User: Fold this.
Amino acid sequence: MSFKIRLTITTSLLLFSLLGSSCAPTNSLDAGLGVAVQAYRFNLIGWELQTLSSELEQWIFGGSEKAGDEVDVVIEYFTTVERMKVLASEIEALKIGNGLGDLASLEAELDLLQEEKESLGSTVERIIEKQIGDTLAQLGIFNPIDGLIKLRINFPPVNFTLAQPPHLLVISPKDRIESLREITLRQDISIEEIEDIEAAVSELGVSSLVVKLGGIATYPAYVIDNANLQFTINTAIEEWLHQYLSFKPLGFLYALDLVGISRNYEIATMNETLAGIVSNEIGSILYQKYYSQYELRDGQTEVAGSDFDFNHEMREIRKAVDKYLAQGKIEQAEEFMEQKRQYLASKGYHIRKLNQAYFAFHGAYADSPTSVSLIGSELKTLRDQSASLSDFLDTVAVMTGRNDLIDGIK
Assistant:
């Protein structure tokens, strides 16, 4: 969703980021979208220019500092994050009259923890960046031109910031599930503003959804700052992989898809799924090497005492919706999705809006329960057949379509 001298890196990644935030040539849909989101757009250009200058300074003058015990610093940060979540829930319960305790003392503790979290943030970023770089090197993954010039350096340099990423407005046609446009929006928009945006966009005859992202491949990449450690590691790696792939045929074609020059949902699915598979594998290796003694929190919602299979249900919903849409029954499909959204809520799984745009966004990850694509299983088969993770990445990165993937499976 969404970069060899440092200045060259900056220029290349800025260009890719700018392309990734553009729209297709102006038409009535784009004009309407422009009006609907004008006041809420995320200023990517301004953010990149502001951030990259400070990152360049950090790269030139910093980087040699060492945290005393690096693993302990990272664990302290994420323990603080977990405690802040508990406090926030307790405070919310007190405010609506469902909790016990002293509101003022809880809020004071939360403020202190927020200060501690902010003081540790930049150090934690640098520690995890170094750990990712070392793990990539261990696996023989360096840079996208390593096959031409043997430069044993990470390119782009692993670089992310722990902060709330922008929101993403996803647009899909109503008569099929496919991403037409993706537009980044400011982080500070309220739920009321989100619903106003979606309502305005729906008037254009399309399906829309504003998504809260866990990460986005700007440069530095955004990684959400209130997730668990494993998610943070995996997301930082995944966004780096998107940057890496932007210099390969698969990633370049994905960029053309993002800007609307050459739409190809299968290319988007291959890119997103490849990045997910590789980042999860690298993230697991890194976690076991540095943090195996730290209690793993997977961040998944568990419904106590329930044997309800959410993944199976979501896949069946997607199949039914596809069938309705193939028959031209758009209203029936939308009524069905709303009924199923309420049913999922009754089982403890709350989805704010379930529509074509929801499936278009989540379905781009072929290993997710909302996808009916075979690309996920095909990529996993190719991974099993590959001599190493780096060989798998190199093989898929030069593909230009799903036929290449099918032909690559032995």
Observations:
- The chain is about 60% helix and 5% strand.
- Residues 6-69+161-408 form one domain.
